[in-house]
Amino acid sequence: MPDTFDRIIIGGTVWTPNGPVETDVGIRSGRIAGFGHLRSAKSEEVFDASGLTVLPGVIDSQVHFREPGLEHKEDLEAGTRGAALGGVVAVFEMPNTDPPTTSADAIDEKISRALGRAWVDFSFFVGASPENVPELEILERLPGVSGVKMFMGSSTGSLLVSDDKNVLRVLKSGSRRVAVHCEDEERLQERLDLVKGGAPVAMHAEWRDVETALRATQRLVRLAREAGRRVHTLHISTAEEMEFLESNRDIATVEVLPQHLTLSAPDAYERLGTLAQQNPPIRSARHRDAIWQALRNGVVDCIGSDHAPHTLEEKARPYPQSPSGMTGVQTLVPIMLDHVHAGRLTLQRFVDLTSAGPARIYGIAGKGRIALGYDADFTVVDLNAKKKIKNSWIASKSGWTAYDEMAVTGWPIATIIRGQVIMKDDEVLGQPIGSPARFTETL
Ligand code: DOR
Known about the structure:
Layout (H helix, E strand, L loop, with lengths): L3 E7 L2 E4 L2 E4 L1 E5 L2 E6 L5 E7 L4 E4 L1 E6 L12 H10 L2 E6 L10 H11 L6 E7 L5 H7 L5 E7 L12 H8 L6 E4 L3 H6 L13 H4 L2 H18 L3 E3 L5 H8 L5 E5 L1 H5 L4 H6 L12 H13 L4 E2 L8 H4 L16 H10 L5 H16 L15 E12 L16 E12 L2 E5 L2 E2 L15
Helix pairs in contact: 4-7, 7-8, 8-11
The structure holds (4S)-2,6-dioxohexahydropyrimidine-4-carboxylic acid.
């Protein structure tokens, strides 16, 4: 009796936990159900991946999709469509919306807005604030919640937990890993005069300098030890933080961004102006190179995009009225595959940083590797495709990317989520089937 599958993927090079294998993959009821030579199996649908590489579905664990309240910049439909077009199967969305996501009602609201409109699987962070500390323990365990996000320095939006007392209160409330934006608010305020009256945008990296980032990261780790709580340090941008974090791996995991690996000062500010403005800032090549070193040495656990869209009109305001952030969910895969092509990281490391890494950090259930019983999530890529990233390809409501006109080698050809092909050859297909991701530590 031949096996029966809903779909088989044939002819591809499949990236299993043991590395690349030439095998077909059988999918049943949205899960991976078989490997081997499956062409004689009964299957409704066949996906021909000949000449292509089938990677575990890429998970982007840091995006800002702006809904509710800031839909002129982005919304859950356009943001997740960009994710699908970029080869991303699941996104974790940040709480600095308007109102911020600080309550169970706000989480419910986001989940109901996403159902039927999200093209990829999703979950939402709860924002920590001094006011909601007593509820965090409950909130972090609600279904569809990725965990708690804490801003130690102010960025876009009103969320802020800046002083040791409140940071410690947050860390003592709950048990899941807390994701943290580490910039020291006191130092940011002390140095605001550097840019307040207007300044060249390159001053962004002076105002929000190395010490601003390092001080917050060191305070966080000290307080995390005091609280006995694991933390995840987001978008680490300096050589000094990497050196510090290397000796604190037992308590702190590390995220880096494609933009900190790809862009550097002063070139990025000269070429892109305020489009290069983001928090923490794009810094000099010394920091970019140290981030690469840390990535290769295993200090880095995952890559997120920090997709943070603002309209071109908003970005055209004179610095520092111009907002911080750039799009990224759609370009994460092509930019990083281009780095793979250039030999800056191996494909094995890319896979670890974009699927197994987020799964390990956040305790995602049933995603993050190509193995029997796991969700049939795949990012199918052509490692040799030569393409140009263009603004016209970007689905974000903001409509731009910092990589416009950049030539890359390596491109996402298909996005498969729980067995459904939702993107192929740069087009989304079918319906927005995104569902809440499941976690091992929720109720
Ligand atoms: O540049 C940034 N933009 N950094 C953040 O931390 C927030 C983000 C946003 O939401 O705009």
